[in-house]
Each structure stands twice: as structure tokens, then as C-alpha cells.
Amino acid sequence: MSEQVRDTGMVLKIGHLYPTLMSVAADRGNLFSIQKRCQWRGIATEVEQIYVRQTPDFTKYDLILFHGGADREMELASRDIQAKVPSLIEAAESNTVFLSVCAGFQLLGHYYKPFQGPELKGVGLLDFYTEGGSTRFMTHMALECDFEQTGKKVLVGYENHSGRTYLGPKAQPLGKVIVGWGNNGKDGFEGARYRYVFGTYLHGPVLPKNPWFTDYLIQLALERRYGKVELAPLDDTIENAAHDAALQLAMEFKGTLSAIEATPWKR
Amino acid sequence: MIKEDTHNRPVTPSGLGRARLALAISAGKLAGASGRLLGVGGGTSLPGLIARRIDPNVLKSVVGASQARKIVITGSNGKTTTARMTAAMAVSNGKRVSHNRAGSNMLQGVTAVAVNFADVFGRLNSDVLLFEIDEGTMPLVMPEIQPDVVVITNIFRDQLDRYGELYSVARALDKTLEDLPETSTILLNGNDPQVANFGQKAKAKRLFFGLESTEVGTPVPEQSADIIRCIHCQEDLVYEVAYMSHLGIYRCPNCGYTLPPLDIAATSIKLAPDGEGPTHVEMRTPQGNMTLEISLPGIHNVYNAAAAIGASLAAGFEKEQLPAALVDIKPAFGRLEKIQAGDQTIYLSFVKNPTSFNLILRLIAQHPGKKHVLLAASHTIVDGEDFSWLWDIDVEAVAQGIADVVCSGNKPEELAMRLKYAEIPVDKISLVEDREAALDAALKNAGPGGALYILSSYTPTNELRRIMQKRGWVKHTWQE
After folding, report:
1. How confident is the model at residue A171 (pLDDT cuts 50, 70, 90)?
2. Which of A55, A80, B355, B478 is in the most buried spot, having the most CB atoms within 10 Å?
3. Which of the residues B385, B459, B462, B464 would you substitute to probe the A interface, choosing the one with the greatest number of A C-beta atoms within 10 Å?
4. Cβ neighbours of residue A79 under 8 Å, at least 6 residues apart?
5. What pLDDT digit, counting tens, does each position of B64-110 carry?
6. Whole-structure pTM value
7. If you measure CA to CA, which chain A residue comes closest to B427?
8. Which domain holds residue A258?
9. Taking Cα atoms as reference points, which of B171, B272, B446, B297 lies closest to residue A70?
10. Residue A43 lies in a domain
11. Residue A67 is among the residues annotated as catalytic for this protein
12. How confident is the model over B399-418, as a mean pLDDT?
């Protein structure tokens, strides 16, 4: 990376929603991944952190990140985000790219009803609802995505959630489960998407070891501002090795109930 | 230092129960001995596993029959060193200690204390029983032990995949305190906003330990901090000083929640500038002030010392004998353990979460020169499956000081990728999954007379240590 990178003059504007409140599973790795992969291509990034009680105009961002948190944090975010709903919807309709993970994903749906306790209202940007289950889905995971621009690709990561998500007709799943539980452990789908709004239970974090997905999000976000964009290729030897290792690991768990029960004792 | 004495003690179980207990202990001991003979393990948890199979009440029977002071040390980080310091303080008070020393702190490892130290009749000849217990295992073990003193060091995010979310771990842990009798003492870290609020419903006496010096720490908590919101009203806490992760002097600007007055407090802290030397500390205690020289470096060891002093005073040890125990205390297995490997020096650190990783990275950054590093991580039951937390480590802050890194364990790609995104040049990173080959490659990087820094999760630390043991650089863990 030491060689001089030609400045493309492009700037990617990122809104990082609740960076401290919703950051339970080191999902800031997603931000690092986007920033570095832009920097290595001569694309500048500007990141704005958005906290509770702030109501920026979300249409100014090309990409919005919204990550996971524990139930307590999620409750706070659910209350706070109601004031942000109209602008978030406007941004989504104006092709802003969203990456939402775990609790952040759940809050983009209509509501989250915990196993115990009151229902948490979501943004309603994605057509689904989530109900808390009595057990947690915790395992290495792989899914097959099929986007128009990328073709069939595999997404890998780790899922850790007790919520069961059920999609309505207006949301499409992010992908088909190859290994893992996915949205509800029953219908074989994982995540959701609508326009350029993506939601997933995958963390690990999801972007670093799925460079193709990171680049897809970067490209969609840049094209919102700059029209058709070609991303310069990067040497992804390490990223692809991490992707393949995660996929191999996930495949070892195929057909098993939980990662913990299935882990062989290794010396 | 610690003897396996087995003499005259009253026996409680009788008849069949006694026979079963004797069988359980004998089988456990045998398993431990054969494990040591075969060199496959230090007899740390296998004896407990075998013994519990035969008599599930083995721990309860042995501990219940003993008149010893029972001290439990739990929390996310600092358990092993705090237990070590407390054991040294007990010994300096002339006490006989039984202790699960090798860091085997789940149910089987804790049971192994009963098996290893008791005679076949379940009799212990100890004045102090010291248990280091994994925070997630506490609800299982506490009813079997009924301790006199419980120390909670801190609660950090640690292996979320194993225990679920931070708050559920905390809730379960707090609940175990409710059943303690009035005669027991709970020692809580007052600098931890969550732990400081523990034991509200407990009958036992609560004491708080912590730091209250502004000579160390930072104005804001680091990125990996877990609890930075008020536990009562969810407002963001304001810190006067943050010592490590979310530990510090905090106050809620909304409801006023703040740390309780500290009973055992480090009021002055002088850390060694080179990251290696002793720390000089003034400690306030309910029995008067103490001047301490702690041979182990770093702010985390000030916490460990404060917790150990609190536990020792609560257990009734003489205050005068305590400081001596800290002067020449050696690092526990894999806690920045300094190992001589021919003319080279290895610093071995066991790291398991962002907090411990950041602590060690910051400490070694104070050592001179660019660092040659070996990182190792594995996904297993004990290490955890989910390695997301690698992205919460502040690698960026120390990247400039790193010469080269060998990545090992069964997760080397993930580690290498994390380093790449911290702008450590790819040609300085190598992937060597085999632990022995990785060690050799990293020692080669370090060069003649050089220093190697190993940061490694639990299983690879054991594996690497076993290799070093085979080469005669370190002793067996159970010989320490």
C-alpha cells in the first residue's frame, strides 16, 4: 500500500449512527474496511458520528452504518430513532446505501418484540418484524447472495441473536442460508433488502472478510453522487484467505444446531 | 510454597457417601497423576471432571467440611494475578493455602482443588481455600462453596458467544451474591460503574476497592469500553479520569450516580517509565495507609494489588505482612511472562479480550525499539468462536512501533487481515499456522539477542508454552 495512490477526487460521505451506543460486536471493523478500501483507491471518506438527540438531514450521506447493541442499548436507540424516521426514509428513497447489522437491522424493521418486556418500535424502512426467542442462534454462517451487479456470491460471518425476523412482501432477503440459522431458523433466508438498504445478522464484523460486498456498497454509494463508477482492483489475498477460512469453518458446522455444541475439542 | 498436606481432619460424610467420596477423590487424583506422567496436562481440570462423574457432591462435601477461610475471586480480567497476590499474602501470614493456581477456573478446575488438596477421606489441611472462578461459572459453583470473601474484579465484554450479552452475565453474577450470609464480605471494584452497583440485595457486607489518583489514566474511556452509560438512567457518564476501558472516576450528569467512597484506594500511583519496573503505590485501607512496591508493571496490577489487599484484610490476615508479598511477586503463567530463550528474550502474554490486548500493547509500546511480534488466536470452546473483538483492539495506536508480525493459531488469516487494516505493511506480516514453526519464524525475526513479544489467546498460549517447556525454557505450569 506504500506506493503513491492517484487521487480520484471522489468523496464518500458516511453517517455512522450511534457509534458508541450500538457497537457491541466490534462492528466498527465495517467502517475501517470501507475507509481503507476507499483510501487505497484514492477515494476520500468523510465520517460523521450521529448520536442520540441529533437529527441531521440523512440525505446528505451516501452510506449509513447502523450496528448492533444489547437489549438495553436497543431500547434507547428505539426511542431516540423515532425523531430520525422521516429523514432516514427520505435518504433511503434517494438511494443512500444502508448497512444495518443485528440490533441495527432489527430496528430498521417495523418492531422488535423481546422475549420478555415491551415492544420496541422500529423505523419501518424494511418490511419485516422481529420477535425474541427463548434461545440464541449462535454460529458461524454462510449465505448465498445474488445481486444484479455482482451475480452469485457468498457472504460469511458469525450470527448471535435471539430475535426471529419475518419478512413482509416489500422486503427481499439478503441471501439464502447455506450454513446457519438466518432470520428465523425456518424459512432459509437471511437479512433483508429494499432499494439500497441492506440488513443482516452477520457480524464478525461482516465487511472485512467479504471484500466483494464492501466494494459493492462503496460502488453503490459513490454512484449515487458520481454516476457510473469503476473501482480500481485491490490485492485481496489476505481478505480472500480470511473469507475462505471462515467459509470452511462454517461448513464444518453445517447441519448442526449450535456452534458451541458442535465445536470439536481441539488440543 | 503450597503443600499438599493431608492430616487429621474431622470427616463428615459416612457410610456409602464416604466410600463414594473416597472413590471420587482417588480416581481424580489418579487422573491428575497420570496426566502429569504422560505430560499431556498439568492435572488442572481432568481430576475434577473424573471426580464429579463419580460423586457430583465432591466439591460441596470437601469444602463444607473444611474450617478454612474461603475466598472466591471472579470477574473478567485480573482473576489469576489477584488470586496469586492473595495467596502470597496468605503465605506471608503463615497460612496454608489450597488454590486452583493454573488458571483452570471453570467447574472442573474448581473441583480439582478439592480433589488435589484433600486426602481420600475428603479432609483438607488448609487455612485458606482460594478459588479463582470464571464469571460465567459462578452461578454453578457458588452454592457449593459458600465463601467468606468474594472479590469481583471487573466485568468486561468477554467471549460474547459463550455467555450471551454483557448485561446477562452481570445480572447472573450479581444474583449469586444474594445468598451470601451476613458474615461474608463482598469486595467490589468501585471504578466499574456496573460492578459498583452489585450486591444491593445482599446481606453480606460490601467493601469497595479502586484507584483514585489522577497521576495515571486518560480523560476519556478507550473505544473498547463497554459501559459508558449510567446504569440507572442511561445518560452518558462523564469521566474525571478513565483508568482502563470503562473503569474510572465517573459521574452521571443527569441522576448523579457516581462511584461509592472507596474503602481500599490507591491514592498515589507511580508507574515505571520503561513499562517493566515496579510500581510505587500509596494505598488507603480501613486499617490505615500502606506504602507498596508492586513488582508487576502496569495499572492493571494496581487493581489486582488493591483487590488482593482488600480480600486479605477481609479474611483477617495481618496488615503488616501484606506489602512484602507484592515486592517479588512473579507474573502468572502468560501474564507478560519474561522467558529466557538462549540469548533471546520472550515476553509471553495471554490475551482474551480487547481490554487485556490493549493493556499489553500499551505496556510493550514503552519497551525500547521496534517490536517483533507473534500473534496467535484459535477458535475453540475455551477461546470462544467469535473473534469480532479483534476489531475493537487499538492496533492502529501501536502500528508504528511494530517491526514484523507472525500470525498463528487456527485463525491466522483473521489476525493478518486485522493488521493489514491497521496499515501494518503486508510484507511484514506472515501466516504460520503450526505453532512451533511460528515460534521459530518469530524468533528468527527477532534476531540474535533480540526480544520477541507473544500475544496469544488461551489455547495457543498453552501450546506455545508446551513447546518452550520441551526446549527447557519454562517449567510445567503445575511446577510453579
Report:
1. very high
2. B355
3. B385
4. none
5. 999 999 999 999 889 999 999 999 999 999 999 998 865 578 888 88
6. 0.83
7. A1
8. 11-262
9. B171
10. yes
11. no
12. 95
